[in-house]
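Table S7 (text form). Paired inputs.
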Amino acid sequence: MSAFSLSPVTPDVATLGAKSTAASAAELAKRGKIKETAQNFEASFLSVMMQQMFEGVKTSEPFGGGQGEEMFKSVMAEAMAKQVTRAGGIGLAPTVEREMLKLQGLKE
């Protein structure tokens, strides 16, 4: 007769909780990075679109024109694009974010 004593294997609840918290923190960080990336993509798209839109716009000499205006048109378009994105954008960022989450195997 052999004396085997089988004790039930119970995982350490504290260890499971710590792993779960670390996993959820990592997932939250990943989700935040995905959201930021999607918003940056939308801002870049809008910036290019606005630069093209302002290409043919001319301003009168006393209040604009010249090399200074030409140099800073792209800066202005980029700032406007970022502001439009912060205010809700055109709906591109949520779509991109959703697709990126799918690619990472995360649910919405």
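Next pair, protein 2 of 2.
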Amino acid sequence: MTKFLLLHARGAAAPPADAAGEVLDAQRLSDPSLAVVVGGEAGAPVAGYWLVDVDSLERALEIAAAAGVAVEVRPLMSERLGPSAD
């Protein structure tokens, strides 16, 4: 299993129902007007995130596509995307 962080835009408060067993954590973020940017410029506002543990990047992309809004999909730095060394 590989962990991915799915950062979503406004309009997607909860992960798709069919991903319930794969979601490790999901949080909504406060309004972007409350953000403080240090050392650079703010990018597009993110409304929240879902941390999922899935079998593949393809599955993470399926979950993201089902959200119906813009979702950025990123693997966690501690995760490998290549074939298992087992």
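The helical segments are 57-66.
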